[in-house]
């Protein structure tokens, strides 16, 4: 197991130097309102760790896989990924009360133009069921 995976934060309290972001995320969790989010910054800044830590607090570690879809958009960058993976996940409602499911698109700037357009339509249509997190 790589070092960064072994020591990756699993709770918001484990994050270092993201105090304002953590406070905002705690407010989202408390109010049970999860907006769509865009995170930006250099590689290794903690974008993915931050959103995954929040997801684990919302859903608990054993339920994360059912309520969170994480894709590396630079590897799965085409419209077929949007159609075959994102759409089916987004189209179904969360069984976790009023909390939305989460779709994490890491390196979304690597997506093709067609995939970006399809994603835009998904965000417009399914934001009631899903929070889209673009990293």
Automatic annotation (TrEMBL):
Keyword set includes GTP-binding: no
Keyword Nucleotide-binding: yes
GO biological process, any: DNA repair
Signal peptide: none
Superkingdom in the source lineage: Eukaryota
Domain ATPase AAA-type core: 37-129
Entries under CDD domains matching the protein: AAA
Molecular function via GO: ATP binding; ATP hydrolysis activity; DNA clamp loader activity
Record keywords, A-Z: ATP-binding, DNA replication, Nucleotide-binding
Gene Ontology, cellular component aspect: DNA replication factor C complex; nucleus
Family from the record: Belongs to the activator 1 small subunits family.
Protein name: ATPase AAA-type core domain-containing protein
Organism the protein comes from: Mesorhabditis spiculigera
